[in-house]
Amino acid sequence: CYAFSTNPSKIIDLTTVIHRTQDEGLNETYQRFVKSKKLEGVEDYLSSHDRQFPNNLILSSETLKSSNFKKIDIPQNIYSTNQIDKEALDKSQYGFLKLPNVYGDLHIIDGQHRLFGYSRSSKKDKHFINILLYDKSMQDIEKMRTFQDINENQDGLDVSIVWELYERTLK
Question: Please, what is the average pLDDT of the chain?
Fold first, then answer.
């Protein structure tokens, strides 16, 4: 799994949504159709707020391989200069990820409305979106489970909290 940030404009054309249809069984697809009302809501939000979305888009690639990632080594003096205990860090690797330049290669598991809401926004080249990208080793059943986990297990925000936050954020 790779984590990175990019401008929405740089990734929109590389993405696709595998929609559920009457013709295909559940073993083939899982994603709902894009809702124009939701897209309009995202567009309105982007035009009236100077904020980006803090949550990740979840994508998978049909062609991404480990060879698309070039690791960079962090010089040892960076750790000592910044008083970072290298052994306390996780085992993440830092580097450059070359995305496949194939239209529709990146399948959206979660975040289709957030991403496509940028398509007509003037902020698509200014904002950054956070992405978790799985390579081709992610099986369809894993994609379905991830989609299900995200959409089935998240709780809606309690109305009383919404009003309390709204009151405090107006200042």
Answer: 80
In whole angstroms, how far apart are CA 106 and each of 36, 56, 102?
21, 14, 8
Report angle CA 104, 108, 112 to the nearest 5 degrees: 105
96: which 2 tokens? 């450059």
Where does the pLDDT of residue 97 fall: very low under 50, low under 70, confident under 90, or very high at 90 and above? Answer: very high
- In this prediction, residue 20 carries a pLDDT of 53
- What value does the mean pLDDT take over residues 1-27? 77
* pLDDT bracket for residue 7 (50, 70, 90): very high
DSSP class of 90: -
What lies within 8 Å, CB to CB, of 104 at 6+ separation is 14, 15, 16
Checking 135-138 for CB contacts under 8 A at 24+ apart, the result is: 135/1, 135/2, 135/60, 135/61, 135/64, 135/65, 135/66, 136/60, 136/61, 136/62, 136/63, 136/64, 136/65, 138/60
DSSP conformation class of 168: H
